[in-house]
Specification:
Layout lengths: L2 E7 L4 H15 L3 E5 L4 H5 L5 E6 L12 H10 L7 E8 L8 H12 L3 E2 L4 E4 L7 H13 L3
Parallel strand pairs: 1-2, 1-3, 3-4, 4-5, 4-6
Length: 149
């Protein structure tokens, strides 16, 4: 089964809750999973030939939460081309703001620019429509997990 690193960006805990639910589903499906609440570049690079799942909320004007912003900057500034990485993104946001799911979108754009391969589509969860994000994320994670090799 696959090795998956889950990298979390959270402000109020919803993204962490979604990540913990994803961890449980992935483990139940036989994958080797580790969750990182404040992942480092070294931890990220340990998954460069495996799978990374980015689960992040959005704060401010489409910004990354403080718990994942340093990792994003390190990946952007120090990693470069990483075509062997396969990844998924779960983005949490609020559509009443201009930059809905901005953090997840910018993370996805960076990884695409660096040549990584996204597995499945980005899941965007709107807090205005879904106050319990895990209701939407759990079925998505089950489908995503089935795509892992």
């Amino acid at each position: 089964m696959a090795q998956v690193g889950i990298f979390v960006g959270t402000v109020y805990g919803n993204a962490l809750l979604v990540a913990e639910e994803a961890e449980t589903i992935l483990i139940e499906q036989g994958h080797e999973v580790k969750l990182f609440e404040e992942g480092t570049l070294e931890e990220w690079q340990a998954y460069h030939q495996h799978y990374a799942l980015v689960v992040t909320s959005t704060t401010g004007q489409g910004d990354l939460p403080d718990s994942i912003a340093p990792l994003f900057v390190a990946i952007r500034d120090r990693v470069g081309y990483q075509p062997e990485l396969r990844y998924g993104v779960i983005a949490l946001g609020d559509s009443s703001y201009d930059n809905f799911c901005g953090a997840g979108r910018v993370f996805d754009a960076l990884l695409q620019e660096q040549g990584a391969t996204r597995v499945g589509e980005v899941l965007e969860i709107d807090a205005m429509e879904q106050p319990e994000p895990e209701v939407v994320s759990c079925p998505w994670v089950e489908k995503w997990a089935a795509l892992l090799k």
